[in-house]
Amino acid sequence: MADPKYVRAWEGGIGAYKAGGNYAPTLSIQRIAAERGCQQVLWLYGEDEQMTEAGTMNFFVYWINNSGEKELITAPLDSGLILPGVTRQKYPRPQQKMG
């Protein structure tokens, strides 16, 4: 489920920290998602509805763009919306070429 009326974190908040206050309010939204037949909530943020996280996990997209280049895309850390997470450290940085 991806619905922009539900927001998990915002700039200036504590989205980049491991804190119960970041996740406890999402439990009721996860229940709504399940009732709609969804397994996860895809969290969106901002006027352009940027994808930030899926459930309580970092979100990655791997694709081949229109120019034929392989890309790994994930939400930036500089906004403070998401926890850096160890998974992000295991994969190449988005600016690095993927083989």
Which descriptor suits the 3D outline? globular
Report how far the terminal alpha carbons are from each other: 32 Å
The largest sheet is: 3 strands, antiparallel
Strand order of the largest sheet: 1-2-3
- SSE string: HHEEEEEH
What's the total helix number?
Answer: 3
Beta-strand content estimate? 15-25%
What value does the Rg take, in angstroms? 14 Å
Low-confidence stretches: none
In short:
The protein has 99 residues and is α+β, with helices and mostly antiparallel strands. The strands form two sheets. Strands 1-2-3 form a three-stranded antiparallel beta sheet, with no helix packed on it. The radius of gyration is 14 Å and the shape is globular.
Walk me through the structure.
This protein is α+β, with helices and mostly antiparallel strands and 99 residues long. The chain is 19% helix and 21% strand. It is built from three helices and five strands, in the order ααβββββα. Strands 1-2-3 form a three-stranded antiparallel beta sheet, with no helix packed on it. A two-stranded antiparallel ribbon has the order 4-5. Strand 4 and strand 5 form a beta hairpin. The longest helix is centred in the N-terminal third of the chain and has 10 residues. The chain is globular, with a radius of gyration of 14 Å.
Keywords:
two-stranded antiparallel ribbon, alpha+beta, 99 residues, 3 helices, 19% helix, 3-stranded antiparallel sheet
